[in-house]
Design brief:
heterodimer, A: alpha+beta, Alpha-Beta Plaits, four-stranded antiparallel beta sheet, two-stranded antiparallel sheet, B: mainly alpha, 20 helices, 0% strand, elongated
């Protein structure tokens, strides 16, 4: 199955993290990505630009409406994601627990729904 | 101690004892659990204001029996029987308070690990029935979704209920056989979440407590004492596995003054008790390995040849890939890093080790010592990527990291 790991964290909290700790965090993500690849589980993954830089787009009365800022103004914001290929949900949860995001934020795990053609 | 912490302490010692007692008297599991849950809730409501009763367990049992009687009364079609039932329940309760509540927890442990119960449910079931832990906490420790864990527990309890006749103790001959899956489940709880046994898990203390209980309830079973000795040895060293700043400290660098001495003494006592019974087994050998490590506090060195011999025996007995990894580390200490690395690579042929973090950490360490820098670096990355514990991850990223 495919699973999406959505990494949420508090952008304000990240501001207080020291430079050295930030460097360690990037190393940790690098190692995690490599481990996923070595296990043949990695499909895609990337960090996202800050939620404050987000734009939202929707059609309002048939016309596009573009707004600045993220869709939901919550403390924890989506900061990155991994799309992984695993045996089952138990395996997806194991990978989520290893994700550095589980230590500095929250990892939401969602199964990817298969289309009718799959 | 305030009422809440007394209630918590009583729950740990008393929950399983009370549940086992009710089951032994023929109360169905689900009813007994509900009645006990209400009794503990009543205790938390009453004790802070009125003080903790002199015999908290007897108080809880009386409260639980009253709930059970109420339940029977509600179900009884003949309403006239209710007052009589109620009176009898109250009488039975007060008679019970005169003496200690008999301990049927060994039968409860055996029921939780009965062949009818699927293996993955055994440890969770024990943690719930004997220690009263809630499903959500058990689920987290085993890295399982809480709803899935609840279902697993419900299914397992139905199995026990359907086969309620099994609740009881087997004869002496059958005890060792019936006890083996109990010990296995306790060990699984200790390593829940895929943790290395030496690092412990969220349930490490609970599992060690269960192992100790099991050894006390089955004093003639060498492997029960062996498992308790093993887990107590591992628990005793845990304070030294982190420094003052919370950083991970590997066993070879432990400040042995921070080991828990009384716990190690208890482990040694259990191991001697096990040996005296003259029936060897894997838990006793693993406990013996930890006993050799513990001796470093006195001798200042580690007797690696002794550890190597114990792991040789363990590998033959278990064929476990985890044992093979530990043995390879002992080979490195006795024959050199290259020999250790070769043994490790042979062990690595087992696919079960691909996601086993301590395997990659061992490859990283031995390859570095054997002068295979590129192999060491790749393994170090992999080990860090597989770590769940941030302290261990940070340790791996720190070791031999290129200077900034």
């Amino acid at each position: 199955m495919q699973a999406m790991l959505l990494i949420y964290s508090d952008p304000d909290g990240m501001k207080t993290v020291s430079e050295a700790d930030l460097a360690t965090m990037w190393q940790a993500y690098g190692a995690y990505t490599e481990a996923l690849k070595a296990a043949g589980a990695f499909l895609a993954g990337a960090p996202l630009e800050a939620a404050a830089t987000a734009h939202t787009v929707r059609l309002a009365a048939g016309a596009p409406q573009v707004l600045d800022g993220p869709y939901a103004e919550t403390r924890e914001q989506l900061g990155g994601y991994y799309l992984i290929e695993v045996e089952d949900m138990a395996s997806a949860l194991r990978w989520a627990a290893r994700c550095p995001g589980a230590a500095h934020g929250i990892v939401e795990v969602r199964g990817v729904r298969r289309g009718p053609g799959d | 101690m305030n009422a809440a912490s007394v209630a918590e302490a009583v729950a740990r010692e008393g929950y399983g004892r009370l549940l086992a007692f009710l089951l032994a008297r023929g109360t169905p599991l689900a009813e007994a659990e509900d009645a006990l849950a209400e009794a503990f809730a009543a205790a938390l409501a009453h004790w802070p204001a009125r003080g903790v009763p002199e015999k908290p367990e007897a108080w809880l049992l009386t409260a639980a029996r009253r709930k059970l009687a109420d339940g029977h009364r509600r179900r009884a079609t003949a309403g006239a029987a209710a007052p009589e039932l109620r009176r009898r329940a109250a009488l039975a309760g007060s008679a019970e308070e005169e003496e200690a509540i008999p301990d049927h927890r060994l039968a409860l442990l055996l029921a939780c690990a009965a062949p009818e119960v699927e293996p993955a449910a055994r440890a969770p079931l024990m943690l719930q029935c004997v220690l009263g832990l809630d499903a959500a906490r058990i689920a987290s420790a085993f890295l399982v979704a809480p709803a899935a864990m609840s279902q697993r527990l419900v299914r397992a309890k139905r199995r026990i209920a359907e086969d309620g006749a099994r609740f009881g103790l087997p004869g002496r001959d059958a005890l060792a056989t019936r006890l083996a899956p109990v010990l296995e489940a306790i060990y699984a709880a200790y390593t829940a979440g895929g943790n290395d046994a030496a690092d412990g898990s969220a349930l490490a203390a609970e599992a060690a407590w269960l192992a100790r209980l099991c050894a006390a309830l089955a004093p003639e079973e060498a492997e029960a004492a062996g498992l308790a000795a093993l887990l107590l040895h591992l628990e005793a060293r845990r304070p030294a596995a982190r420094d003052a700043e919370g950083r991970y400290v590997p066993l070879s660098a432990h400040d042995t003054a921070r080991w828990n001495l009384p716990m190690q003494a208890e482990a040694e006592r259990l191991l001697r008790q096990a040996s005296a019974l003259g029936r060897h087994g894997r838990y006793q050998w693993e406990a013996a390995v930890q006993s050799v490590h513990a001796a470093r506090r006195v001798t200042g060195r580690t007797d690696w040849p002794a550890i190597r011999l114990l792991y040789d025996a363990l590998l033959v007995a278990t064929g476990s890939p985890v044992v093979a990894v530990n043995r390879a580390v002992a080979v490195a200490e006795t024959e050199g890093a290259a020999a250790g690395l070769a043994a490790l690579r042979a062990a690595g042929a087992d696919a079960r080790l691909a996601e086993y973090q301590p395997y990659w950490a061992a490859v990283a360490a031995l390859a570095a010592r054997a002068g295979e820098a590129a192999v060491a670096e790749a393994a170090r990355q992999r080990a860090a990527g597989l770590a769940t514990d941030p302290a261990i991850r940070a340790f791996l990223l720190r070791t031999e990291a290129p200077p900034a």
